[in-house]
Amino acid sequence: MRSNARATGLWAVMGPTDWWPVTSNSAGKGAPGRVGCAKRAETNIRRVFARRATKQPVGEARKALSNWVLQATRLRIIMHSEATADEPALAASLRSLTAADRLLAALQRAVQTVAGRSVASRPYPPQALPESQVAALTDSERRHAAALIRVDHVGEICAQALYEGQSLGARHEPVRAALERASREEIDHLAWTRQRLQELQGRTSWLNPLWYAGSFAIGLAASRLGDRLSLGFVVETERQVEDHLLGHLERLPANDHPSRAIVAQMKEDERRHGHEAGEMGGVDLPGPLRLAMRLAARVMTATAYYI
Fold first, then answer.
1. What value does the mean pLDDT of the chain take?
2. What average pLDDT does range 145-156 have in this prediction?
């Protein structure tokens, strides 16, 4: 029973991925079942941290860490079709995770996010557009649209890092579970913007690791102020992101309907996440802090447009 709880919890903090194509058929070779993956992951993580008290070689600890990430990711794929939307069950599963579980999950999520391994769980918004609205863009329109979508992609990199830092330091499980859920939903935004960048022959920002590291530090710092202020940080962040996306809808080429469909859906999701954080008790941030957040966002958007 405890292995099942840890399995659900590990899936909850890591989300879907496409790193290893493993099936959920426990009878097949190389495809252990949910409980088997949970036991292997737990065994490997114990080996990693056992090195502190033993003479275990560094190479063995690294091998155990690698095996843990592999088994945890396989477990996550198996659990993807069995994930529950029941909030009490999700919170209970998260409580079964140790600090080491959360730390390694955060590390794996960072690598996955920056490396562009995110997989959307919802349909790609442009797929719903009629063919008549998928028009060709001029070179200048394409480059401008790609730069704006790159900025949006960087924003989602930062959002993942902020949520990760805040959930890692959250003091109450319902708050942690809400942050984890919002983070998983915004993985769609990462996948959508990256796909659209490829369609526009654009590239992601060269500074993505820096954006992630800085945002993670900010999120972790916000979590140390308490859950109410941390949730207030989410409310203010989503409010500013919603305004930013509205500005991009005005700046995108009028005939770039695929990009506009993506940004419009992202804007609606951000509005909902901000509302949910407010409903959970998020408080208004001081004026100077809101201003500092706006200034930092302007630096990021201006830089990411070109770099």
1. 77
2. 96
